[in-house]
Amino acid sequence: MNIVLFGPPGAGKGTQADNLVKNLGLHKISTGDLLRDEVKKKSLLGIKIKTIIDKGEFVPDDIINSFIDKIISNKKFYNRLIFDGYPRNLPQAEYLKNLISKYNQKISCVLSLDVNKEILLKRILGRQTCSKCGVIFNEYFKPSTPKNHSCDLVHLKKRSDDNEKTIIERYDIYLNKTLPILNFYKKLKLLYEINGDAEINQIYSQIQVIIASLDA
Ligand SMILES: [Zn+2]
């Protein structure tokens, strides 16, 4: 089973990918990780990638695609991949489609976590971590109360970089870039839209139902 996973920043895509890895024995492909690993190796390619990233530019498709090729052609990962953050554009989606069939595999499903912008904002902006006990709260969805938390409220910290404008920008960029790719998969009848407004466990239940329906 090969799965492609989509979701806006902050939608909990990483958590769902980890669930799939753990429960289905899939191998997660994250292009971000692949690029970082290559940079760490300080290979010629790694140095080239670092220069591109440092300039704030996008790593070209041919470099990204060559990493994906190496993995899909590796028998160790035959038909058990989960793609997180790839494909990022239509040419990459076309490339993946051809590559997958070249190596006699198929994409089983494309899962898209759909999250309402307001809910996403509240999830991210409302997040509070207790610096004393480490428990994570959310002032909108799971506020700290004397019943569930005994620490003093001064210990509740918010992440400083989570401001509203940045989140909305990231969300809109994601939607604009991803919509054409989702339409591409919709035409191939591979797209499954998931209600990402639900709790983490409920989201995974929806994914399980879809996967069970594929096996049937
Ligand atoms: Zn605490």
How would you describe what is shown here?
With 216 residues, the protein is of the alpha/beta class. Helix content is 50%, strand content 16%. The protein has eight helices and eight strands, in the order βαβαααβαβαβββαβα. It has helices at 13-24, 31-41, 44-54, 61-72, 90-102, 117-125, 164-187, 200-215; strands spanning 2-6, 27-30, 81-84, 107-114, 127-130, 136-138, 156-157, 191-195. The strands form two sheets. The chain has a five-stranded parallel sheet, sandwiched between helices. Strands 6-5-7 form a three-stranded antiparallel sheet. A hairpin with a 5-residue loop joins strand 5 (127-130) and strand 6. Helix 6 packs across helix 7 (164-187). The longest helix has 24 residues, at 164-187. The protein is globular. The two termini are 13 Å apart. Zinc ion binds at residues 130, 132-133, 135, 149, 151, 155.
How many β-strand stretches?
Answer: 8
Averaging pLDDT over every residue, what do you get?
Answer: 92
Beta-strand fraction estimate: 15-25%
Largest sheet: 5 strands, parallel
Low-confidence stretches: none
- The count of helical stretches stands at 8
Give descriptors for this structure.
five-stranded parallel sheet; three-stranded antiparallel sheet; alpha/beta; 8 helices; 16% strand; 50% helix; binds zinc ion; single chain; 216 residues
Brief synopsis:
This protein has 216 residues and is of the alpha/beta class.
